Amino acid sequence: MLAVVEGHPRPRVVAATGAARARGVAPGSSLAGALAVAPELQLRTRDPALEAATLAELAAWAGQFTPCVSLDPPHAIVLEVSASLRLFGGAEALARRIEAALPRLGLNAALAAAPTPLAASWFARACPGSVVRFAPGWARRLDPLPVALLAEGGAVSGATLELLHGIGVRRLADAARLPRDALARRQAGAVSDALARARGELPDPRPWFVPPERFASRLVLPACVATTEPLLFAARRLFSGLVAWLAARHAGLDRCRLHLEHDAHPETVLEIVTGQPGRDEARLTLLAREHLAALALPAPVDALRLTADAPARLTPASGDLFGDPAGARDGATLLLERLRARLGAGAGAVHTVHPSPDHRPERAWRNAAPGTRPAPGALGPGPRPLWLLHQPRALDSARSLTLLSGPERIESGWWDGADIRRDYYVARAASAGIWWVFEQLDPPGGWYVHGFFG
Amino acid sequence: MSAAALTALPPGLVWRADQLARPAAEGIPTGFAALDAELPGGGWPRGALIELFAEAPGIGELALLLPTLRAVPAERWIAWIAPPHLPYAPALAAAGVPLEQLLLLTPASHAELLWSIRQALASGACALVLAWLARADGAALRRLQLAAEDSATPLYLFRPIAAARQPSPASLRLRLTADGDALAVAILKRRGPALAAPLRLPLHRPPEPGRSPLPHHALVRPDPVRITAAGIHARGR
Q1: How distant is the Cα of B31 from the closest Cα of chain A, in angstroms?
Q2: Is residue B37 part of a domain?
Q3: N or C: which end of chain B has fewer CB within 10 A?
Q4: Which of A332, A399, A429 sits opposite B125 (nearest CB)?
Q5: B2 pLDDT exceeds 70?
Q6: Which pTM was predicted?
Q7: Which residues are within 8 A (CB) of A124 and not within 5 positions of it... i.e. 6 or more apart?
C-alpha cells in the first residue's frame, strides 16, 4: 500500500496504489486524513526530477516504434506513427504491442490515437483505447469530451476553466460554440486556440525528442535487497529500456555494465559481454542470471544502474525463406558466453588446446580461445598419446611394463632452464592400457608415466 | 494377438524384444562396421545418454570415438567436460580432430559440472558432448538422459567401471576392456536383445609416427643399441 504525497506545509496525496484507494485514500485527500484511514500506508514524496527522467526513458523506449517522439510533460508522450502503421499492422495492432511491452518497463499507460497530437492526448485522458482516424468530420468526436481537458498541459489557465464552468460550459462542444472575440475579450482566447489546434485548424508543432547518445539508466529498488534473485527481475526492466534504446538507433552492443549500488560500500560492477553486437533482451537476461548466480553480494543493494558504451551499428537479420543459417553460429557463441559467465572468463575454465612448436611434451601444447584454428605446423616425430598427465607420475617399479616401441630421445630446453633429457617409450602396462613412459636420464634413473594412449 | 498379426503391424509401431529398435533418426556412424551393425539405428544414437565404462586408462577409450570426432559438422562444438587428464593437442591434431571446435571445460564443482553438461546439451550448439563423471545418482542420470533427448545431441558419459553394475536410464551402455591390441566392447544395454559376446574392434595402436620429416634443431633420435631390449627387466637394471 503506497501513496505519493506532495506539498508543504500541508502535504496532499497525489497518487495512490489500488490497495490504498480501496481503503479510501483518494488523490487530493490530506496526508493526515489518509493516515487516519490507512495507518500502515507507506509514503513517498513526489520527485518531479524522477518523473521527468521516467518520461525521457519512456520516450527513448518508444523510439523503437517511430523516430518521431515528443515529450508532452508532465505525464504524456506523443508518437507520430503514421509512417509506422504499415510496418506494425495498423494502429490497433501497434497499440496492443505497446500495451503488451510496457509492463516490462514497470509502467502502464493509457493509449489513444487521433489525427492531431493535442486530440490524441485528450482522448488518452478521457477515453483511453480510442482510435480516431482522419476522415471528414472526425473533429466532431471531440465534442462530448469534458471541458476540463483544456487545462491539460497548461494550455488554458485554471481561472479560465472556472469562468467556463461558471457559465455552464461542460463539454468541448459547448466551448466551441462560444464566440471567439468574446472569449478573447475575457483573456480566454487560449480556449479557442486550443480547440483549433486539437481540430488541426491551427498548426501544433512539437519538438522531437532526441534520445541520449549514451545509455544510462538507474532503478532505485523499493527496499534493500540482499539476495540476487530479485535483482535479476529489476535488471530485466533496465535491459528492456536498453534494448528499446538500441532498436531506436538501429544499433547493437556487445557489452554493457550492470552496477549494483550498495548503501555503505563501493558499488559492484558486472560486465556483461554477449560476444557479438546485438540487442536481444533474453540473451542479456540469461547472461545476467549467470553473473548474478556466481556473485556473492558484499552488502545489500539499494539501486541498480545500467550503463553502456557507444553502440555499434547493427544490420538486422533479414528474414530467410530457408531457415536460418546464422542461427547455429549464434547458438555456439551464446553457449560460449554463458559458460564463461558462470565458470570464469579466464583461460583455464573454458578453452581449447593447440599444438605448440616445442619438443618438450609439457610445452608442445598451449591453451587457446575456443573457436580459434591452430597454426598449421609440422607434427611431432614420434607417437603421441591422446591423454597427457598434468604432471609425470613416478612409477614404483618399471618391471610390470612391456616396452612396445622406443626409445625416442627428447633432449631440449637448455636455453630456458627447463631442460629435459628423457628416453620415451610406448609401453603396455599391467592394467592392459598403453602408456607413454620415459626414463629420466638427467639425473639418471627413475621411470615416469607421462600419458595414456586413450 | 497372434504372431502373424504382430508381424503384419507397420514397422516402428511395435518393437519386438528379439530385434534391434529402429529409432526415428538414423544413428551417427561410429566408424566401426562391426559396432554399427549391433547398434539400433546403425550408429551412435542421436539425442541419447551413452555410458562408457573403461577398464583402465589407455585401452583405446578415446580411439573408439576418434572417427566420430573427425566427422563432426563445422561450426558446432565438441564439448569435453571435466576430462581426467589433459587432451594432448599434438596427438589430437595428428588424429585429425578439429581443435578449433574443441570446447574444454573444467568446472570447479560437481554442481557446475552437471550444469555445464545441461547447458552444452540445451544450447544445441554441440555436435557431441563428452563428460567424465565420477559419481551420479539415478535422478541426475535421468535428467541428463532427458536433456540429451530434448536436444538431439549425444552425450558420452565416461564413468568408473564400478558404476556399470548400477541401474541407469541410459539408452546405450558399453563396457570397454583391452583384448590384446584390440578393444573389446561389451554392450551392457541397448534397445535390442542382449549381445552374447563382446565385440572386438581393431584399433591401430599405438598410432603411427607422424609423417613429417625429423626436425634438425633438437635431438630426437632412436637409439640403435637399446632397441633390442624387449622389456625393462631384459636390460639388466
Answers
A1: 17
A2: yes
A3: N
A4: A332
A5: no
A6: 0.58
A7: A76, A110, A111, A112
